[in-house]
Amino acid sequence: MRNILLILVLLAQPVYAVQPDEMLDDPALEARAREVSKDLRCLVCRNESIDDSNAELARDMRLLVRERIVEGDSNEEVKEFLVSRYGEYVLLKPRFGGSNWILWGAGPGMLLFAGIGGMLYLRSRSRAKAPGEASLSDDEAKRLEEIMNR
């Protein structure tokens, strides 16, 4: 029983939300549509591709992708059309450029900033006097002498 279950798990194919009535008759065009769809984000489900989402908007986007492919658009033209319509957030892998420079550079920039801050802090701590090294003022020394001689 365990072996059968293991075999079924290993043979299981990924489940797509694409409905049979959405699929194109031409297998080559359908493969292109799947290729484009896997890089597009469902705007309702957030981090799912439109192929994996059951949302109504994802279905509309899948149909739109297939329409554009049938009309003769290339894969990049289909993506550009969807970006112009829904914004760059529709791409699962954002582009490296434009306003995304801030997003791409924020992580490494903050790490560098924290590293420099940490090094400066450790450097200032190594130069600081130890608490026992502070000398007493004359008044404090006299008072200490009085206390010790009692």
UniProtKB/TrEMBL annotation:
GO biological process, one term: cytochrome complex assembly
Annotated InterPro entries: C-type_cytochrome_biogenesis, CcmH/CycL/Ccl2/NrfF_N, CcmH/CycL/NrfF/Ccl2_sf
Keywords recorded for this protein, A-Z: Cytochrome c-type biogenesis, Heme, Iron, Membrane, Metal-binding, Signal, Transmembrane, Transmembrane helix
UniProt GO molecular function: metal ion binding
GO cellular component, one term: plasma membrane
Domain of life (superkingdom): Bacteria
Gene3D superfamilies assigned: Cytochrome C biogenesis protein (1.10.8.640)
Transmembrane segments: 101-122
Leader sequence segment: 1-17
Iron found in the keyword field: yes
Domain CcmH/CycL/Ccl2/NrfF N-terminal: 6-148
Sequence similarity: Belongs to the CcmH/CycL/Ccl2/NrfF family.
Function: Possible subunit of a heme lyase.
PANTHER family linked to this entry: CYTOCHROME C-TYPE BIOGENESIS PROTEIN CCMH
Protein name per its UniProtKB record: Cytochrome c-type biogenesis protein
Species this chain originates from: Aquicoccus porphyridii
